[in-house]
Structure formats: structure tokens, C-alpha cells
Amino acid sequence: MAFFVAMAGKGGTGKTTVAGLIIRSLLKKGKSPILAVDADANCNLNEVLGVKITETIGKIREELLQVPPGMTKDAYIGYRVQQALVESDGFDLIAMGRPEGPGCYCYANVLCKKYVDILANNYNYVIIDNEAGLEHMSRRTTHGADLMVIVTDASLRGVITAARIRDLCDELKLKINKIVVILNRVFGELTPDTRGEIEKTGLELACILPADDTIREFDERGIPTLQLPDDNKVVKIIDEFVDKYMVQK
Ligand SMILES: Nc1ncnc2c1ncn2[C@@H]1O[C@H](COP(=O)(O)OP(=O)(O)OP(=O)(O)O)[C@@H](O)[C@H]1O
Ligand SMILES: [Mg+2]
Q1: 3-247 under CATH 3.40.50.300, yes or no
Q2: Ligand 2 centre and the CA of 106: distance in Å?
């Protein structure tokens, strides 16, 4: 069974960057094969990973509404999902694409989920990069995970939002084995206020990632995060995080 990791957090906190860094670390540690799932309608995990996507599950779902009678939808979607899978070195990527438009998608959704689940069986790790906010949880695209990583900045409001996401997971009774928080793009030391708030919420603080000029520069120049050097400070912290929470599972 694959180890499922779901990313969460409010907009622009660094979910996609951290997802890319986790995948980078797993690759270095020889933990392939890894499935990266871009569950953000505005796909961009592929840029962090340095690969191109041509098809999305959303597009296949649309096509399913028009499969001619007589042709089995089941066979069709199995074949199309395989086509949508982008294969790379040690990892594959699948993009979920846009949420459904008008029309009845229940059956198509069930089939898509079935085939993504079947696909996941082929991997050691599945890393799901979600879109910002809590929508994906209430719509239950995050059904369950071994580990949920909530990424936030070091602001009080950021920590409060992170705690709200954790609480919502509990309320929705999502099957998530462990929920941790990563503080990202942190300048200097944490303030006592932020530390106090984290303690108050009972969130498990997994690690603190500093604001990093190389990450910013790579992003500005369109260089995949996957290519960050081994001695980068943030890379090293994520390597330790992966050892602690994902490898010695
Ligand atoms: N530790 C860091 N140091 C410097 N820049 C960072 C760091 N982490 C992320 N960034 C930058 O912050 C921006 C937002 O990051 P990212 O796209 O990963 O966030 P996100 O949470 O996935 O956003 P969205 O909610 O839009 O999906 C990017 O330009 C990224 O390069
Ligand atoms: Mg993102």
C-alpha cells in the first residue's frame, strides 16, 4: 500500500513548493516509484517538478459524458487515465484539472476515482498537492491520508488557519493518520506570540523553513524546485522531515 501525503494550507503559503521538495527528498533516498497528484485546478506542480502535462482527469471526465453507447466507459477511462499519466525519472504525475461543469458527473467521478485509486497501487508514495483553502476537504477530494502537511506562514492568522484546517479534518471525520504543520518562508526567529499560539492550538510543528533566496530565484527563472542543490538549507530540513515522518513510518 502506498503512503499517502496530502498538502493543505491557505493560498500562496508554499504547498506546491514543499510538495516538490518532499518528492525531491524521496527520490534522493531511493523511495521510488512516487506518484505526484496535482489536485489544484490551476495546475502548477508540474513546473516545480520540471515536467509537462497534456491531459487532465477533468478533461477525461468531460469526455466520458460523450462516450458513444456500446463502448464501455470503464475500459475507455482506464486507457485514458494511463495516457494522462506523465512518466518521469522515479516519479509520475497526474493532474486532476478543473472541477466539473454542468451535467451529471456522479458516475464519471466514481470511475475517475476508481482508476486513480488503482493507479496509486503501483507506487510507494502518493503526494497530493491540493488547492488553497478548505474546499477540497468539504468536497472530499482529500478522502484520507497517512500524513497531512499543513503549510503556513509564521503569522498568528496563519497558525489559526492551520488549526482550523486540522479541526475541519476532525469534523469531517477524514481518515488522516497524522496531521503536522510546517512553517514556511520564515524570516528570523519565531515570535513568542506565534510559538504561544502553536502551543495553544496543540498543532504538531514538524519543521520551520526559512525564506530562501535560491528558492525565490529558481521560481523567478522558471527552474524546477527539484533541481535545488543538496546543500540548500530548506532542502536539508525537508530531508530530515521526510526521514522522521515518512520513511520511519
Ligand atoms: N521557503 C521559501 N523561500 C522563498 N520563497 C518561497 C519559499 N517557499 C515558497 N516560496 C515561494 O512562494 C511562492 C508561493 O509558493 P507556492 O506556489 O508553493 O505556494 P502554494 O501554497 O502552492 O500556492 P497556491 O495556494 O497558489 O497553490 C512561490 O513563488 C514560491 O517560489
Ligand atoms: Mg500550489
Answers
A1: yes
A2: 26
